[in-house]
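Sanity check

After download, print the first record. It should look like this:
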Amino acid sequence: MSIERVSRKHGVVWRVRWRDSDRNRARTFDRKADASAFEAEVRRRKRVEDLASLDAGRETLQEFAEKWWQLHALLNLAPATLANYATLWDAHVLPRLGAMRLRDLNPEVIARFRADLTRSGVGDASVRKVLAILQGALQRAVEWRRISVNPCRSVRKPSQRRERVVRPLPPEKVELMREDLLARRRQRDAVLISVLAYAGLRPGEALALVWGDIRERTILVERAVALGMLKTTKTGQRRTVRLLGPLAADLSEWRLARGRPDDSALVFPGREGGVWNDDAWRYWRRRVFARAVHAAGLEGAVRPYDLRHSFVSLLLAEGATVVEVARQAGHSPAMTLSTYAHLFEELEGAERRSAEDEIRRAREVVRTSRTRFVPASTTTPPGVASKTPANPLKPTRGLEPRTPSLRVKCSTS
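Expected structure tokens:
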């Protein structure tokens, strides 16, 4: 290790030379004091066997992301999560930060990045997700000794407040949707609506059910469908959901209509008898579900996922505790309170109502008014797509929407 004076055309510089493993290294400085300070740092790192980190962080974020994707993301993240990460990375991180070296990323740079996203009209939820993805990737950079600290950790993210107030559909509206589907001889779809609204399953969980999961008093939830493949549930945990009497009857009639399939068969098979792929789901949502929503006289954007809130509201009307609702809904008590606080307040002190009685009453109301019920017309209702299936490359909201893969679309592949 040495410091040498080097004459150049535009003046004198000071060069520090040292050997790192089997390589000779050098760095130049304009001032001798800076060179001396750096030499002392090199000696210190050599004593603690940490010379490698002295030259770390030279690769760009884009170059590092290639290794992070291959060594960490592909091995630890679900396919739907990978697709979501890829879309956000391509759209927001790569154009703004991809060419920067890791060592040049600091809290101020990340704060400017966040501000730029907000100025560009990116919503708080997306900004929060983008920063979480970047922080996770840079945490691997810390662990792999590319950088010493994670610059994202000290940058404040947008608050995780719910932008959309949960408005559960009452059983009468659910039954109008079912009535429309049954009138069109779509028993499978009517039963799927029942499972979503009266068992509170997420759409992917409902499509992954097999007949063995339908037990005498409960429904076992341990799988979900995402991007045409079976995976674990969103939380990765197994749970059971109470099987309400009217839903049990719907499932029993559907199994009988299917010819009593064995316990390993899917309750809601796709067109070819297997798991639904993403194209089939989007087609069902836009052509079948949207028409049922229109027939029920519902306004605004109603998603299949929203039916899940109807089950929660039925439990709350019975007087179920926060812990019980959270267990059956498949998320934490804290999230239950955050999502359904207004429903707890509305139902506090109200007369307790049986969920099964409420569903049966709604069915009776719809049956008695059947003669006055006008089914959806054969023309395409407002807001429903034409007969042409949805563009499979266009991201949509709902069940595990298809998004471009980082491995395929992103230049960090």
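If your output differs, re-run the checksum step. Summary of this record's structure: The beta strands are 2-8, 11-20, 23-29, 218-221, 224-226, 229-231, 239-242.
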